[in-house]
Amino acid sequence: MKARSAISRLENFQRTVQIRRRAFDVPGVAVELSLSPDVLLGLIQDDLSPYKVRDTLYTSYFAENFTVEKRAAKKLPRMSMDSLTFNPWTGERFLIDTGYIAASGFDQSVLEVRDPTPFGRDKVKKDTLKFGSLTEAHIDGNWRQ
Fold first, then answer.
1. Which residue has the higher pLDDT, 109 or 14?
2. Which residues of 26-60 are buried (b: 16+ CB within 10 A; e: fewer)?
3. Cβ neighbours, 10 Å, residue 91
4. Which member of 5, 31, 79, 145 has the lowest number of beta carbons within 10 Å of its beta carbon?
5. What is the pTM (predicted TM-score) of this model?
C-alpha cells in the first residue's frame, strides 16, 4: 500500500514538473500524458507532490501574507513593517546585530536584538532585554514572566 502511494506521488510530481517546464501548456501536456485537460488540472489543483514550487518573481511574500486584510482574517494584531525596529513604548530603535559563527564546521547566521532602555527607563540597573546571541547559535531571551 505504501509503495503504491509513493509511486503515485512520484508520478504526480513528474507530471507537475513536466507541466511547469512547458510553461503551463495544459492541453499540450495533457496529450503527452494521455490525460484529459480536466484530469490534468485536477492533479495540479490537488498538488499531491511532496515538493512545493512557489513563484515569487512577480509577487511579494509580504503582499500575500501580511496585508491588513490577511492579518484581520487570521485575527492577528495590526502591525507596520516600517516600525518593527522601534520599541512601541519609548520609540527608540532596537539595537540589532547580525553575524556568522562557525558551528559544527558550518557558518551559522546569528542574531542579537537588544532594547537599550528596558521598561522605558534610561538608568535601570539591570541588563537590557534581549534575545539571540552573537557568540552562540540560539534565539533564547533573558526576560522572565
1. 109
2. eeebbeebebeeeebeebbeeeebeeeeeeeeeee
3. 10
4. 145
5. 0.47
Beta-carbon neighbour count of residue 76 at 10 Å? Answer: 10
What are the pLDDT digits (tens) for 102-116?
887 888 888 888 888
Q: How far is 29 from 3, CA to CA, in rounded Å? A: 26
Task: Count CB-CB contacts under 10 A for residue 115.
Answer: 19
Identity (one letter) of the amino acid at 99? G
* Domain boundary assignment for the chain: 2-46, 82-132
Residue with the three cell numbers 540560539: 138
Residue 92 identity: E
